[in-house]
Amino acid sequence: MDRSKFYESLRARNSGVFGTSLSQTQVNGTEALLNEGQSIGLPLRQLAYVLATAYHETARTMLPIEEYGKGKGRPYGKPAGPYDKIYFGRGFVQLTWLENYQHAGEVLGINLVKFPEKALDLDIASEILFRGMMEGWFTRKKLSDYISGDKADYVNARRIVNGMDKAELIAGYAKAFETALRAAGYIGQAPKTLLTPAEKPAETVVVTPAAPQSPPPEPAPQASTPPVKRSLLQIILDIIFRRKGA
Question: How far is CA 20 from the centre of its chain?
C-alpha cells in the first residue's frame, strides 16, 4: 500500500474529509488504524467504514477521546464496580458501562475494570474499535452484516455502533476513505510473515558396498596337442629295428 497516495487523496479539496491538510496527530492516529487494518487483512471497504467511524466519533481528531461530560447525567456516569470507577465513554468509539469494559478487557487480556483509562491507549483503542465492529460488541451488529463481498451498505452499517445517527454523513466519509484506499493500492491482505526456513540436515551419503566379485574364471585347460601322426615310413623302420633287436 502506497500511503503517500492515500494521504494525497485525503488532502484533495473535494475529498470530503480533513479539508486540504492533516495535522501530525491526525496522521499518527490514522497510521495506527491502517496498521491494525492491514495486520488483520481487513477487506478494503470494511476498513473504509472503520476509518469513517473513527473520523466521526473522534470529532475528526483520529485519536481516542473521552466522552464530553464524562458520563455526567448518564446512567453509567456513576462510580461502579469493585474499584469505584466511572465507566464513561473512552476510545475511538465510546466504550461505556462496566460490563462492556469487563468484556473488552477479558478479550484483550487487559484489566480495563481496574484501569478504564487504558481504553485511551492508541493501540488498545484500535483493537477495541476493530474487534468491536467486526464481532458486534457494541450493538450485536457486525461489519460483515452490511459490508461483505459485493455488498457495501455504508448507510445501514451505522447500526454497528449507534443506530442510524448521522448514518448518511458517515457513509459519505466512508466513500472518501474508500477512494483513498483504492488510490493507495490497498488490497486487504495481511502481510505475510517471513519465516526463516529451518536448516536442512546435511545429507548423508550412503555408500552401498559393491557386491563381492566372483573370482575370475580359471582358464580352461588347454587341450593337449594331439600327437602328430607318424608317417608310414617311420612305422616300417620301427618294425625293422625291433626285429633286429630281437
Answer: 33
Q: Report the topology of domain 65-119.
A: Endochitinase; domain 2 (3.30.20)
Q: Could you tell me if 48 and 174 are in contact, meaning their C-beta atoms sit under 8 angstroms apart?
A: yes
Cell numbers at 195, concatenated:
519465516
0.85 exceeded by pTM: no
Query: Which of 201, 246, 181, 238 is closest to 51 using CA atoms?
Result: 181
In angstroms, what CA-CA distances link 241 with 80, 150, 216? 153, 131, 52
Got the DSSP string for 145-180? Answer: HHEETTEE-TTGGGHHHHTTTTHHHHHHHHHHHHHH
**Which residues make up the CATH 3.30.20.10 domain(s) of the chain?**
65-119
Helices (H), 41-86: 44-57
Around 3, how many Cα atoms within 13 Å sit in the side-chain half-sphere?
A: 9
Give residue-wise pLDDT tens across range 112-171: 999 999 999 999 999 999 999 999 999 999 999 999 999 999 999 999 999 999 999 999
CA–CA separation, 54 vs 195, rounded Å? 34
Q: Are strands 147-148 and 151-152 parallel, antiparallel or unpaired?
A: antiparallel
The three cell numbers of residue 46 are: 470494511
